[in-house]
Amino acid sequence: MATTSQETLAEPTVTARWIDILTPEQQARVRRDLAFERVVAGHVVEHIGGWADAWLGVVDGLLRVSVGSPDGRVVSFTGIPPGGWLGEGSLLKRERRKYDVVALRESVVARLPAATFDWLLDTSIPFNRYMLTQLNERVAQFIGRSEYRLLEPDARVARHLAELFNPLLYPGAGMRLAINQEELGYLAGVSRQRANQALRALEAAGLVTVAYGAIEVRDLDGLKRYVG
């Protein structure tokens, strides 16, 4: 296991819905151009203000998209579990990142170069359709977050947890995710103790099963509607 903040890897096994819809020629180029790195918890994968030069995917682990203030406060936008990809907006607008991407736990990150991303947009109608779905889901996700601020902590935790099981954005997550109370607390903006309290309430409601270092969702629709 690497003891440094990051480690370049040979190609691991990558399954992604958008790769499966490409032609054999396009798949071959994607697999040739993808680069992978293993990063430790706390490593900043992308810094705010840095130029967007790759589309990022999570092969393993958990990433947080967030911004920080000079006084140390952090606002989390979303978490990205295995199977999720992020950063397409900055690539499409050819701009600097407006957020940090931080590993909440040891993770394996895939990078698809911007040139390959642009080539897929130019040559693949299915990829363009996939990207429209990705962007539409992302917009709906952030619109929904305006409601979260009006909810009690248990309901906020429920909504943030439900986001991680979005089958369109994160098809690789399944219904069980390796995440602990502290990591969920980071995403929901609550303490580890408060996240634990919320999870116990959700478990009592029959919506989730909490295991050591993992959460299994039993009722995703119920989780999305939970108000406490």
TrEMBL record:
SUPFAM superfamilies: cAMP-binding domain-like, Winged helix' DNA-binding domain. Pfam families: cNMP_binding, HTH_Crp_2. One of its GO terms (molecular function) is DNA binding. Residues 151-221 form the HTH crp-type domain. Residues 18-138 form the Cyclic nucleotide-binding domain. CDD domains: CAP_ED. Keywords: DNA-binding, Transcription, Transcription regulation. It comes from the Bacteria. GO terms for biological process: regulation of DNA-templated transcription. SMART domains: cNMP. Signal peptide: none annotated. Coiled coil: none annotated. InterPro entries: cNMP-bd_dom (IPR000595), cNMP-bd_dom_sf (IPR018490), HTH_CRP (IPR012318), RmlC-like_jellyroll (IPR014710), WH-like_DNA-bd_sf (IPR036388), WH_DNA-bd_sf (IPR036390). This is Crp/Fnr family transcriptional regulator. The lineage of its organism: Bacteria, Pseudomonadati, Pseudomonadota, Betaproteobacteria, Burkholderiales.
